[in-house]
Amino acid sequence: MRRFLLFFASLASTLALAQGQVSFRKIFHEDHSRGHKYGIQGASVAEGVLFQLHDGNKPIVMYNLADGSFLGEIAVEPLKTWHNNTASFSNVRYEASDPYPLLYASQENVKEHKAVVYRLKKGRDGNVSASVVQTIVFPEPVEMGLYYPNLALDLDAGFLYLTGFSRESWKDPDHGNAVQILRFRLPSPKEGKVVELSTKDIQARFCTDFKLATQGATVYGGKLYQVFGLPGNSCLVVVDLETGKEVLRAGLGGVPGEPEGLGISDGHLILSCGDGDVYVSDSAVPFTRPVDSYVCAYVWPSCHDDPLGHKWLWEEGIGEWEVIRQGDKRFPGHYQPRQPLWGYEMDNDPVVVEKWIQTALKYGVNTFIYDWYWYNDPEGYSGPYLESALNDGFLGAPSHSKMNFYIMWANHDVKYNYWNYHKWGDREDRLFNPDVDWDQFKKVVDRVINQYFKLPEYVKIDGCPVFAIFSIGNFVRSFGSLEEAAKAMDYFRSEVRKAGFPGLHLQEVQGGGSRMGQERIEAMRKNISALGINSEALYNMGGFNPDYLVHGAEAIEIRAQMDEVFDVPVFPCVSIGWDDTPRFPAKGPDDATRWNNTPRAFATFLSKAKEYVEKHPDQPRFMMINAWNEWVEGSYLLPDRLNGFGYLEAVRDVLDGKYDN
């Protein structure tokens, strides 16, 4: 059966790029009067400085990327080869005091190809000098089957890539003569050492069907970026380094010259042309992770030892597992306490989250939506809460770049006894206050832009980072009026644009959703208009009934009403069930999902959500699942001792089309 991810059309932004252009603007022009009569051949960026390589025995030239000012030249040893092809910085400094990481310069002629690894040092006079740390000698170009190979480093994975126009001596069975991409393990740099590689060291060989020579290459976010061609006939091609497949091809809008060096700075492509012009892409690089559709699961990050949580709620050092393990039966057959198959694992442990990522991708979930918090506590603390699950767990996992993510600001009030009634009993006054003033909000904006939005795996729609808010009402309350809240959101968008993005995609996430009267509809329409809300979503699928089949049917009707009355996209959500009795001692049989709560029933409603997405081809392809790990609310995809991998298998079966009409 065909896969869900295959028959979804690409996102609008990806389509626009693949069929049109990536727009660039010129930021400065290199002054060739300095005697650089040989053309630019390679470029890379480090610490806000552009380093350019030229043909022949010419120095490396440095420019301030911000204003184009000339910063000096770095003399290099005379080259026996004649072509400086590409440059790429590592993330390693030879010594901590060095101003820049090690620079890998690719040099070649028809008969030989090598990479010279330079250590850059700054003297007392401020001038930068270069010394050779290592030379990597590759097999002869004819052995590798490459013309004019370019070099690029995948530092996260520890690989070195060569990419170049394929010689006729090597043919790919699918593409014929094309552009080859060769993968080598990146040698550890050692002073004075010459590393000689052979064709036996080639770990992988990819191919793309483009018939012009590569001119520059760089790696970012698990993708290889390559520029091709000559003046008037050039383009950008992006290849996924995990699969070796091309994921994007686009023209270079606004670049009349011959593209040569390619680098990335602050998430933007930096392009150096042979005529001396230097360009930056207008938008940040959302096209690093083009995805046909987003199958999302919410992540509740409570199961680790957070300082604020430890202080006020969970003193055992295991987060909310402290409460989950005390779940008790409220009616015959009640499944409490919940029993995770993998035990009580910490959600900020990168080893644990690596297992999550591998499992999610295996079964078709490709996006995590992390609940994110900013709270004020009774003793004056103001700042993030439960953030370690994302910062240390997810972003620390080796495979996090393979997974999409974005954050939902869960800005709801928290009573003392809401998250641990065992500790606080009947105390129902407010413990955590989510309201922010202007000073705090500016800190929130700066934090999410610089800590998350700039990451290539952060989800973007039409290039705009997605930022979800759980309680629009509380956001408005923070600023005293809808008009002031709108000013705050305008400020947020302006800061996002300053960071290089075309805008912000603001998403409202309703907690549960319900059938709406006209007054509620008009109030939400007013918020959508005033705040510039771009999409509506649900955290739970909407409504509630102890019978899962009744609950799901009601949720479909709620979704249909939202789709009818709002002019922005509505993204469907399917819950696995509902049972938050471990948090509330007074709840009983009518407050938890009791009947027909099975993986098969979940699959039927998920198939209806998939059908909804297919019937809305004009909007981004998002499907939400509540949730990945809401153990305390009885809604989780992670395997447990009752259903095993049943819910994950249901996701896979729906995406594989087994529930299609």
For the largest beta-sheet, the strand count, sense and barrel status come to: 10 strands, mixed
Query: What is the overall pLDDT average?
Result: 86
Q: Tell me, briefly, the overall form.
A: elongated
Helix content: 10-25%
Poorly predicted ranges (pLDDT <50, ≥5 residues)? 1-19, 169-177, 286-290
Class from helix and strand fractions = alpha/beta
Gap between N and C termini, in Å?
12 Å
Textual characterization of the structure:
This protein is an alpha/beta fold and 661 residues long. Helix content is 23%, strand content 31%. It has 15 helices and 33 strands. Strands 22, 23, 24, 25, 28, 29, 30, 31, 32 and 33 form a ten-stranded mixed beta sheet that branches. An eight-stranded mixed beta sheet has the order 15-16-17-18-1-21-20-19, with helices on one face. Strands 6-7-8-9-13 form a five-stranded mixed beta sheet, with no helix packed on it. The longest helix is centred in the last third of the chain and has 18 residues, at 548-565. The relative contact order is 0.10.
Supply database-style keywords.
disordered N terminus, alpha/beta, about 650 residues
In short:
With 661 residues, the protein is of the alpha/beta class. Helices cover 23% and strands 31% of the residues.
Which helices and strands appear, and what pairs or packs with what?
Layout: H1 4-7, H2 12-19, E1 21-29, E2 40-46, E3 49-54, E4 60-64, E5 70-74, E6 83-89, E7 103-108, E8 113-122, E9 128-137, H3 141-144, E10 146-154, E11 159-166, E12 179-185, E13 193-196, E14 204-208, E15 214-220, E16 223-230, E17 233-240, E18 246-253, E19 259-265, E20 268-273, E21 277-281, E22 294-299, H4 307-312, H5 321-324, H6 350-363, E23 367-376, E24 382-385, H7 388-394, E25 404-409, E26 414-415, H8 421-424, E27 430-432, H9 438-453, E28 460-461, E29 464-469, H10 472-479, H11 482-498, E30 505-510, H12 518-531, E31 535-538, H13 548-565, E32 573-575, H14 599-614, E33 622-626, H15 646-655
Parallel strand pairs: 1-18, 9-13, 22-23, 22-33, 23-25, 25-29, 29-30, 30-31, 32-33
Antiparallel strand pairs: 1-21, 2-3, 3-4, 4-5, 6-7, 7-8, 8-9, 10-11, 11-12, 12-14, 15-16, 16-17, 17-18, 19-20, 20-21, 23-24, 26-27, 28-29
Helix pairs in contact: 9-11, 10-11, 13-14, 14-15
